[in-house]
Amino acid sequence: MTFPNMLGVLGSWSGHQQLQVTTPVVNDFEVTVEEDEATPFMGVLQPMPPEKVAIKPEGERDWKWWTLWTGQDMKNKDIVTDASGKRFVVISRTDWSGGAYYQYDLREDTAQ
Amino acid sequence: MTYPLNVVDREPIKVLASILQAEMDLDDGQIMLANQQRVIPKNDGLYVAMQVIEERALSSVNRAEATEDGMIEIQEVVMQQMVQIDFMSWDDSARLRKEEFLMAMGSIKAQQEMEKYLVSIAQLPAGFVNVSEPDDTKMLNRYTITAVMQALLRKTKEPVAYFDKFPTTSTPEPEVIVNG
């Protein structure tokens, strides 16, 4: 039994929106984010359920956690930006590419 | 952003990093300053992170120089910096290549860079410490060493106010009394 293709379903979820992702690069030995190198994509961004936040490591539970479902392949520490300019950092990646999507745990970057 | 406090606009730790990168043939993503939330890729290869862990001033000098337009103030300090360098790898690169750091410090490239940027790097720092530890599902090979550097930092302020005019008052000429 093959894994069902979930990408087409994401469009009808709440929180489906235009986002963009930027991969930090090392420039002159410092990690920089090139804003003009952002890649736009569509994804479902929803607050992480409290039962998942509760099992996060101590010290991380008071972070603002989000869950992202999208067909965009990203790496840990990539920067995701929504239409309002809010920034999120990719903390973990779960590969469900068999079902044409990936699931990410994002931390909202409140230090802006 | 240019480094404003160095004679030639180069942060001392980046001078050390550029020497290491050239002598150890590392790519841009393999050597960086520490504490930047950069995740080391889970592939083979050497990764180097550097940070200044301690600094102390060896000298602080303030002097003035005359110019055509007036006077400038030159503020100079010589700082001794202790730089922690971590050599990390998921394979055996860190264990096999860490000694190249000592070779790099005595290289011709290092001599040229030190002269160009007015930085002095000690050639025989203290030894390596094995701080390898498990990370996720793999063992991260990690060796750390502390390098000692001295760097001249300079800030120039211009123009500086100086006084070359003195107000005169309507006091009478001083009387000269000659003992006759």
Keywords, separated by commas or semicolons:
heterodimer, A: 112 residues, mainly beta, six-stranded antiparallel barrel, two-stranded antiparallel sheet, globular, B: 180 residues, alpha+beta, seven-stranded mixed β-sheet, 19% helix, rod-shaped
The geometry of chain A reads as globular
Whole-angstrom Rg of chain A: 15 Å
Q: Which of globular, elongated, flat, extended, rod-shaped describes the shape of chain B?
A: rod-shaped
Please name the two chains that share the biggest interface, counting residues whose Cβ lies under 8 Å from a Cβ on the partner chain.
A-B, 12 and 13 residues
Order of helices and strands of chain A: HEEEEHEEEE
Strand content of chain B: 35-45%
Q: Give a short account of the largest sheet of chain A.
A: 6 strands, antiparallel, barrel
Derived from helix and strand composition plus strand pairing, the structural class of chain B reads alpha+beta
Strand order of the largest sheet of chain A: 1-4-5-8-7-6
Structural class of chain A: mainly beta
Low-confidence spans of chain B: none
Given the structure, what is the number of helices of chain B? 4
The end-to-end span of chain B amounts to 75 Å
Averaged pLDDT of chain B, please? 87
Oligomer: heterodimer
N-end to C-end Cα span of chain A: 46 Å
Strands of chain A, total number = 8
Number of strand elements of chain B? 7
Which percent range fits the helix content of chain A?
Answer: under 10%
What's the rounded overall pLDDT mean of chain A?
89
Number of helices of chain A: 2
